[in-house]
Amino acid sequence: MSINSLVLKHFLSFFISVSFREAESFKEQGNAYYIKKDYSEAFNYYTKAIDMCPKNASYYGNRAATLMMLSRHREALEDSQQAVRLDDTFMKGHLREGKCHLSLGNAMAASRCFHRVLELEPDNSQAQQEVKNADSVLEYEKMAELGFEKHDFRMVVFCMDRALESASACHRFKVLKAECLAMLGRYPEAQSVASDILRMDATNGDALYVRGLCLYYEDCIDKAVQFFVQALRMAPDHEKARLACRNAKALKAKKEDGNKAFKDGNYDAAYELYSEALTIDPNNIKTNAKLFCNRGTVGSKLKKIDQAIEDCTKAVKLDETYIKAYLRRAQWYHARIWIFIGYGYDLSKHKHLLKNAQLELKKSKRKDYYKVLGVDKNATEDEIKKAYRKRALMHHPDRHSSASAEVQKEEEKKFKEVGEAFTVLSDPKKKSRYDSGHDMEDDTGNMGDFDANNIFKAFFGGGASGPGNFFFQFG
């Protein structure tokens, strides 16, 4: 070997040694920041270590762990995969790869990684538990798929909530949950889930579709179409967005045609156009409620009072908060009574019709406590308690202490409404009176003055320390 070759060999050996020592120093600094939970700085130092020694598996493994703490699961997955490519016996690398796969919703890939850990260390308790978690996610996926096929949207939401406990970063699960919340009429929750996804991924076609779906079902058709069009730009093959966009445009056009015919005094044509619009999408409850009410108005112009009353009844069955439909129905009940009087009918036989309409109108103006808790009118006592638990924790002011003043105010209002709803619906006597249309302030005094925190403490047993004890449940 020549002198030059020896010099070069010693120089390379010296350089590698220095680089390794410097990389180890960066790693140790990264570890120190990781322990202090300063994950951004830990990431920077692990990156410096990788730059010095790009073939060291443990450096990638450490950076993957940091990225997981920063909720950057896709980047963490890449680092953990690089770690096991460099060293297939690197147990922590396989474990972290599996956890990333699971967080992202790929339970089958996660299971393979965890089983590889068990090949390396059969008694690894963490890997054993993670295998069970992966199996559970797979099972919930299957149950959700069956539930969606059967239109059992409550079941799907339940399954996705359970799956997301392990797969917290899975946009696919979140979108499916949001879509089913929209189908259940729980639009604010669905919008919130979709918005969270879009903040992280503005190009997510599924989330854009769900945002549009919520607006569509809330009768904000123009805005809905904008979201559907945007979803199709991001995902041109998105069939659900394409169908919803087509229905939304058709529904708007047919309704506007009906409105124009009515204004022109062409009542027969308006009646037909509203009837045709009602066949476009039976799932669009709010728009269809308006269409029934509009058709009822046309019916009254055509002297079809019974038909007008029937259409308004259909409208309020679809949307119990639709005050205009109650008012018009009451008006036409009254008109029918005078028709009966004109024909010599006994007025006392028909007073109950007007009284019923007035009661329904009064009920429609109250807060809908069932909607506040997200339960239906046949909810059991246990379902009401579970719903209160979920909504109270979701809207508790302590959870939103770092939010803007506007958001804090809104969440405090919602927290108070949840307490009001639980106070009424958890008490059989109050619930019965509420269901029958009585004004609850007559029974409980001014509901606006009650302390929602007292309800919260009584429910959770918070004692003197207050709701701060429940931070661990917020997630």
UniProtKB/TrEMBL annotation:
<keyword id="KW-0206">Cytoskeleton</keyword>
<dbReference type="Pfam" id="PF13181">
    <property type="entry name" value="TPR_8"/>
</dbReference>
<feature type="repeat" description="TPR">
    <location>
        <begin position="289"/>
        <end position="322"/>
    </location>
</feature>
<keyword id="KW-0539">Nucleus</keyword>
<dbReference type="InterPro" id="IPR001623">
    <property type="entry name" value="DnaJ_domain"/>
</dbReference>
<feature type="signal peptide">
    <location>
        <begin position="1"/>
        <end position="25"/>
    </location>
</feature>
<keyword id="KW-0802">TPR repeat</keyword>
<feature type="repeat" description="TPR">
    <location>
        <begin position="91"/>
        <end position="124"/>
    </location>
</feature>
<keyword id="KW-0007">Acetylation</keyword>
<dbReference type="InterPro" id="IPR036869">
    <property type="entry name" value="J_dom_sf"/>
</dbReference>
<dbReference type="GO" id="GO:0005634">
    <property type="term" value="C:nucleus"/>
</dbReference>
<dbReference type="GO" id="GO:0005856">
    <property type="term" value="C:cytoskeleton"/>
</dbReference>
<feature type="repeat" description="TPR">
    <location>
        <begin position="205"/>
        <end position="238"/>
    </location>
</feature>
<feature type="repeat" description="TPR">
    <location>
        <begin position="251"/>
        <end position="284"/>
    </location>
</feature>
<protein>
    <recommendedName>
        <fullName>DnaJ homolog subfamily C member 7</fullName>
    </recommendedName>
</protein>
<dbReference type="InterPro" id="IPR019734">
    <property type="entry name" value="TPR_rpt"/>
</dbReference>
<keyword id="KW-0597">Phosphoprotein</keyword>
<comment type="function">
    <text>Acts as a co-chaperone regulating the molecular chaperones HSP70 and HSP90 in folding of steroid receptors, such as the glucocorticoid receptor and the progesterone receptor. Proposed to act as a recycling chaperone by facilitating the return of chaperone substrates to early stages of chaperoning if further folding is required. In vitro, induces ATP-independent dissociation of HSP90 but not of HSP70 from the chaperone-substrate complexes. Recruits NR1I3 to the cytoplasm.</text>
</comment>
<feature type="repeat" description="TPR">
    <location>
        <begin position="23"/>
        <end position="56"/>
    </location>
</feature>
<keyword id="KW-0732">Signal</keyword>
<keyword id="KW-0143">Chaperone</keyword>
<dbReference type="Pfam" id="PF00226">
    <property type="entry name" value="DnaJ"/>
</dbReference>
<keyword id="KW-0677">Repeat</keyword>
<dbReference type="InterPro" id="IPR011990">
    <property type="entry name" value="TPR-like_helical_dom_sf"/>
</dbReference>
<dbReference type="InterPro" id="IPR013105">
    <property type="entry name" value="TPR_2"/>
</dbReference>
<feature type="domain" description="J">
    <location>
        <begin position="368"/>
        <end position="438"/>
    </location>
</feature>
<keyword id="KW-0963">Cytoplasm</keyword>
<dbReference type="Pfam" id="PF07719">
    <property type="entry name" value="TPR_2"/>
</dbReference>
